[in-house]
From TrEMBL:
It comes from the Bacteria. Coiled coil: none annotated. InterPro entries: Biofilm_reg_signaling (IPR052155), PAC (IPR001610), PAS (IPR000014), PAS-assoc_C (IPR000700), PAS-like_dom_sf (IPR035965), PAS_fold (IPR013767). This is PAS domain S-box protein. PANTHER family: BIOFILM ARCHITECTURE MAINTENANCE PROTEIN MBAA, DIGUANYLATE CYCLASE DGCP. It holds the Pfam family PAS_9. Residues 11-69, 139-196 form the PAS domain. It comes from Sphingomonas parva. One of its GO terms (biological process) is regulation of DNA-templated transcription. Residues 86-138 form the PAC domain. Gene3D superfamilies: PAS domain.
Length: 203
């Protein structure tokens, strides 16, 4: 029994060293009430707190005022306990008050008797990823506005099967179809019957 206990303690120590060495993710444990029980180097790096500043505090510390008022910290734990996992993205707050966009996973932890004893919390800073996605969406929005404003050229998109997916004002002016009439139709309708018979649309 003593050897087994020492072995278990050794494994736990090695695991804790591994967790503490991770800096790309905030990995920490919560007790069953949502209070912080452990703190790794990644958590310190992302959130700006030393372990002695946060251990014992409720993890809602890292949420925005809006999310706390909406009860999101408590709801996340309820969902994790009920469904086996909670996963989402949202704003989190650092010690200095700045915000970062986080991808968050919460897993419930149970003892051998099946009683809930806490939660494992994994947080990753994905602010740059979100900024890139926002920039792409904005670029696409501006492109659509630009295309819609062009009247001298028919500019439209077709899917891999040849069906029209969007339609600008130039296409409407030149071809005579409104977007409602043509989106979802095959582009071969712009060809003559003779050209369609010769297979021109497929070339």
């Amino acid at each position: 029994m003593a050897d087994a206990a020492r072995y278990e303690s050794l494994i736990e120590q090695r695991f804790q060293r591994l967790v503490n060495a991770v800096t790309d993710y905030a990995l920490y444990m919560l007790d069953a009430d949502g209070k912080i029980a452990t703190w790794n180097a990644g958590a310190r790096r992302f959130k700006g707190y030393e372990a002695d500043e946060v251990i014992g505090r409720h993890y809602s510390t890292f949420f925005t005022d809006e999310d706390r008022d909406a009860g999101l910290p408590e709801r996340a734990l309820r969902i994790a306990a009920a469904e086996g996992k909670f996963e989402s993205e949202g704003w989190r707050v650092r010690k200095d008050g700045t915000r970062f966009w986080a991808h968050v996973v919460v897993d419930p932890i149970y003892d051998d008797a099946g009683a809930l004893i806490g939660y494992a919390k994994i947080t990753r800073d994905v602010t740059e990823k979100r900024a890139a996605e926002d920039a792409l969406r904005e670029s696409e929005r501006r492109f659509r506005l630009l295309v819609q404003g062009v009247r001298d050229y028919a500019i439209y998109m077709i899917d891999p099967d040849g069906y029209v997916t969007n339609w600008n004002s130039g296409a409407q002016a030149i071809k005579g179809y409104s977007a409602d009439e043509i989106v979802g139709q095959h582009f071969s309708r712009f060809y003559t019957e003779e050209d369609r018979a010769r297979g021109e649309p497929a070339r």
